[in-house]
Structures are given as structure tokens and as C-alpha cells.
Amino acid sequence: MKLEQYLEEIIKFLQDEVKKANAKGLIVGLSGGIDSAVVALLIKKAFPNNYLTLVMPCFSPQIDLDYAAKLVQKHNLKSEVVNLDDAFISFKKILDQDLKPEKSKIVLGNLKARLRMNTLYAYGQNHDYLVVGTDNADEWHIGYFTKYGDGGVDLLPIVHLLKQDVFAAAKILAVNDEIIVRTPTASLWEGQTDEQEMQFSYQELDQYLLGNTEHLSHKVQERIKNLNQATEHKRNLVPQAPKWNRS
Questions:
Q1: Domain membership flag for residue 110
Q2: Cis peptide leading into 238, omega within 30 of 0?
Q3: Which of 58, 75, 213, 216 is most buried when burial is the number of CB atoms within 10 A of its CB?
Q4: What is the per-residue pLDDT for 81?
Q5: In a domain, 29, yes or no
């Protein structure tokens, strides 16, 4: 099946899931990155009159906001900006009392993602919209998302697309060129990039997931395998105690 056909299947999946949930539409967060751009355009195609994109700056780089705004303008997306700076400061003041210095960067980065999740669900409930996630196959496999943050969603439409597929989908959907060529980053702290944090490239991860491992170093393969195992708890929510035998 060609990618164009699969994108149509994703659109139908979104429509079917909304109908099953007795909801009215869909909502997604816009980060200024390629994954959220692709998902935003897919949900607009699925529900042209019943969708919303939220830009949620939280001490975010200006470039994130600029790219999100350019996508909104080019594709005439329904969008609102919800600034979370003050909410973040309030939570940080509480956490500062007991925050370990060596943990602060990751804790506060994940806090930003979880504040955005809360915002999406508040807006989603208000509009009777389902919250749509933006995780692709690469991110899902290695758990490269915040548990109950950007991983806290109702639907995952692009979870079977490799990163290379996301780039191809972005071109099909006419995502802005500057977003397509941008270095992938979650922008959870200054200077952060996906590949720097993962310690391998998306191209290497794509090849691993395709089974083309002959040119991948043992170190990269082990790193991917270890990340997959260590993040299993993110993909299978929530472990339950053994069933009680009442006899």
C-alpha cells in the first residue's frame, strides 16, 4: 500500500474512533515540529469543522512558536495559544523545596509535557474532542515520550510511521519546508535535540526497525534494545496486581 493510501486509512481511523467514542472531533498540540504538523493536517482532513490545534508555550524557544504560527497561517488551521509559563512557575516553586539537582532537568522537562497534556484534556473535554498523540514508530519503540505527558492521549494515528515515513507524509501534506528540514527536538530544555539524547540517529533507528541491522554498530543496536526494554512500562499502562481468586 502506498503512503498516500495509508494516510487515507489513518483519516478514516480517526473518524471511526470519534464516532465510537460519541465525541465531536479532535484536538492536538502544535509544537512547531514535523510530527505534530503532520497530525494537525490529518485531523483537519478527518474533521474539517470540528478540530482544534493548541500551541502551548512553556518557556519555549521562539522558533517553536514561529514555526507553529507559520503552519497555522499556511494551512488556515483552527488554533489557540495557551501560555503555560505561569503554571510552570507555580509548580516549580513547589518542587524546588525537594528537587534533586541531578534530577531537575528531566523532572522539569517532563513537567512541561504533563502541563500540556492537562491543557489538551481540559480543552478536549470542553469541546467533546478526543486528544490525538503525535508519537511515531521510532519514538514509540524506544519510549521517547513523557509518560502521562505527550504519551497521555486517546489516539495514536502515526504510531506505525517510521521517522522517514513522517518526512514523506509531511511532503505529501505540504508541511512548511522549514519544519521538514528542522533538527528534531522536544524543546524540553535549552539546546536539547532528539538524536543527541537518544545517542543514535533516526536513520539508524529506522533501519533497525526495518530489520536492516547489518550496517549498524553493536553499540547502537544494544542501546535501542535496552531503551525498548526499559520503557515497556510506558507502552503498557498500567500493571495490575494478580487476579484475586475468591474460591
A1: yes
A2: yes
A3: 58
A4: 98
A5: yes
